[in-house]
Amino acid sequence: MSHSHDHGHHHHGHHHGSDEPTSLPPALDMSVPDEGLTPDQLSRRGMLRRTGLLGAGIAAGSVVGGGLVGAGQAVAAPAAHGSSHDAGRSGGYLWLAGDHHIHTQYSSDAKYRVIDHVRQANAHGLDWMVITDHGSETHAKIGVEKVNPDIVAARDKISDTLVFQGLEWNIPAAEHGTVFVHPGRNEVSVLKDFENSFDGAVKGATDSTPANEALAIAGVNFLADAIRRKRISDALFLANHPARKGLDSPHEIRGWRDAQPRIAVGMEGAPGHQAAGLPKPNGPGSGRGYYDSSPSANSWAGYPLESYRTFGGFDWMTSTVGGLWDSLLAEGKPWWITANSDSHSVYADNSTRGPNSDFARDGKYQDPVYGGGLNLGDGDYWPGHYSRTHVGSSNFSYKSVMDGIRAGRVWVDHGGLISGLNAQLKSGRSSVTLGGTLQVRRGSQVDLVVDISLANGSNWAQFVPMLARVDVIQGDVTGRASDRDALSTPNTKVVKSFEVNKSTGTVRLTYSLGRLDRPVYVRLRGTDGNRTAVGLNGAGVDPVGPAIDVVGDADPWKDLWFYSNPMWVLPA
Predict the structure, then answer these.
(1) What is the pTM of this model?
(2) Is 98 in contact with 127 (CB distance < 8 Å)?
């Protein structure tokens, strides 16, 4: 995450309710000398330097020139600009780390204040975050309004972290999902209308029935209508822990995405609750992500038993090469992955809910108090402590983060395995980055160029992770699947593995896709190499992939991975 800023612009205030980009926080703005920072700002800058997140350089390297590239576009790289400031703004992105799945005292199963999470996220190096308390009858009546003043106050108090308001949607007929909106005067009313009308728990619509599936589609259509009518300027929906209970069928995922592809944009590639796999007695002794379930009456019958577990901490849909995620990408469907904390109750924290709490009456718990003991049975980390979602943004603003997520300019990591990733597909003078589509003449030479800034410092578990290997995964684009419940694609596999075995410095990896006469996509993953296994579709597809996580014995710090979103090539 390396930040660039056009220093020719005057600094201005943080307009959290508007689309106007905010100035870079002083700690991230290298035009502000160390002596010009407050002690808190200097502390944050020092943390970012130590973890390799500041000054990595390559992470915001020149992606393309003349503007930002989205799906379906490619532009020629420009000649070098005379000013590094100009080059940083026209050719690069700010890679802003964040977390879109966080619970507070306004959730029936959580306890922290909004400001607690925002301070922790800021201290752990996050630039943006979404407060997502559970949809419920109590939350719909009380919580969605009550939490807003706390979010507004946190935006003012911690001005260098963007704080979105959202909620965790009980998707009718399916699992949970993050829904969040651009800040503005109607953020509360739109979220409240949405929750009261379309939340599965509020509406009694949790069973897997066609009527309830249709209600979920109506929910994403409602968000699109709220944007069209200018009640809000933007909204996004991401499916959370999609394979955990087998509730999100392939046809439902395709249905959400196809109904509103600018709103239903992706899913958690890796769930939160990553500490849940730590063995007893010093941990919860469950599955990573609390992926320890088995099929129920509402589960989709086509899912295999292994889909109810994580692999290297990642959801089965994401971690299986040639699996469900790849089946969507092979259709040419943009469907992005993220990673986050799902933070409710933090492992080894020593706080407890405030006395005299009555959630049913108040829609919240009383402020947490010191509890006197370490909560070793809790399965969560603070936002940014373990999982990070890095978004390529054109500037430091709410709009740019949402635009970056929608465009798929996203990569995710666990445990600070790497600190910067700049991946490009190139052909001649044209190039695209994550989420982009490179349009070339048939038979054109296409190359993948990947620059990685390694860990370059200790993570929050106090060791320097080593990147052992990076895999290039490539698949053919086969077009729309005739089966809406397709969960595999035959022509996707690991095509190249690079041995790295370094923890400091930078590495450049290049791979030639050759002269292409058919549409393909590529995506990346990397590992510390500590736990591996042959992929579920065999050694010919994935010879050294993530291993299934053992319930009750899965230390997340001993099994670190990063994943990128895909890029496509369309020869014409």
Answers:
(1) 0.89
(2) yes
